[in-house]
Amino acid sequence: MFDDAIYAPSNVCFLTREALQSAGAELTIAEIHAATDAAWSNIRNGTALGGKAVLSLPEEEFWQKASVAPFRRDFVDERLGWKLSSLYSVNATYGGVKIIGANAFNRHLGLPRSTSTMLLLEKRTLRLLAILDGTAISALRTGTYASTVVKLFVRSQAPLSVFLFGSGPVARSVIECLNFSYPGLIDKIFIRGRSTEGMERLVSDLSDQSSFRLHPVSDNKRMKDCACVITATNARQPLFKDEELDAGAVTLHLGGDEVPEIYLQRALKRGTVVCDDIKTVSRRNSQSIALHFSRKGLLLEDIGSLLGVRELSAPTDWVHLSGTPVCVTCVGLPMLDLYAAQATYEKYLALTAHKST
Description:
Blueprint: H1 4-7, E1 13-15, H2 17-23, H3 29-44, E2 49-56, H4 59-63, E3 83-90, E4 94-102, E5 114-122, E6 127-133, H5 135-153, E7 160-165, H6 169-181, E8 186-192, H7 196-206, E9 213-216, E10 228-231, E11 250-253, H8 261-270, E12 272-275, H9 278-284, H10 288-294, H11 300-303, E13 310-311, E14 326-329, H12 334-356
Parallel strand pairs: 1-6, 7-8, 7-10, 8-9, 10-11, 11-14, 12-13, 12-14
Antiparallel strand pairs: 2-3, 3-4, 4-5, 5-6
Helix pairs in contact: 3-12, 5-6
């Protein structure tokens, strides 16, 4: 027998960031970690499923427009990342679709590089329940990858240093998430960003909130001292040289083609190479590990498992030899977005229902 409360018509909630802030419904760092922890558990037991489709647009077409052509010189070292993406997923209760429009040129217009819109649906009817501004939610959930990777792969008990490339919303979220998860383990984070102003703004905003010290840097000299290196940029070329890393460093890649070929070869031969999901990373084909194979006429999804590439999305006990590299590439699983949207929607309903009584 049908549950009328579930299937009855209802108004769709339009939840802008301002509406969420006004209601106090934006997720805290603790709440986003709880949501993504639940997502990982259900991804690994097979009760949360999803996929991703990406339409990448040619940069040459963009630069042909006369009004933007003069700005091309500003993007010599940075990809536009001009693309339209759709991430779709379901869990036991909800379905979700995240739509992302991205172009690095947006910053010249005073806009975020990427903008996300989340659609939350009731699973059985796939009826729309809410439309959420997902830009901030998406950046926050991406930062939780840092917490996950440090938990699984960093073995040090003593205070350690982290090297972070990037100073945008994802870099900010990485710092906030690490501060929540490992306030006693991390001693300092070195930040290397595209601009001095961006780095200084990030440090100014977060220094008083962080239990560790934040240091903007202009080169990679301190990378050798870091147990973990995180990339969150849109760079066109590798951000570091293999010899600049500690031999056993854990690297987490949240951007694009940022990793040198020699490092990938070393990690594949002697270390541990991990994707959040091999098929998704392979089909996206924008990050170094996927491009490493596609440039040779091969597919990561065909050859990765044969070479020992592993997945965060698969149940496993993570063991790796001390002093050997760990290279983790994450493209962003749609199920994480679904659980973040679900937690936000349910928090909003609970708060607004309480206020209306």
